[in-house]
Amino acid sequence: MYAIIRTGGKQYQVEAGDTLRVEKLQGEVGDTVELAEVLLVVDGETVKIGQPMVDGAKVVAKIVEQGRHKKVIVFKKKRRQGYQVKKGHRQMYTALAIETISA
Prior knowledge:
Layout: E1 2-7, E2 10-15, E3 19-23, E4 32-35, E5 38-43, E6 46-49, E7 58-68, E8 72-78, E9 83-89, E10 92-102
Organism: Desulfobulbus propionicus (strain ATCC 33891 / DSM 2032 / VKM B-1956 / 1pr3)
InterPro entries: bL21-like (IPR028909), bL21-like_sf (IPR036164), Ribosomal_bL21 (IPR001787)
Keywords: Ribonucleoprotein, Ribosomal protein, RNA-binding, rRNA-binding
């Protein structure tokens, strides 16, 4: 059984037992999160497609980690103008362990 969920403006395919990193969610490590934006649920031969969401479906996940990704360097330069800007960015993320998928 797997589902396609939407969180943080992105879509993820998840199964029970998976671990994934999503955009930062509120909560502490060990908290349980319910993801209600389920777009599709597949259970063997049964396929439920939402329009846009599957009614009554939810994915329950546990917060495993709150962290930051590796640094991304943003470098801008205009040639022959003496203009250079160097910035770094570290995006926040939440690591989730998928526990159950209910349709």
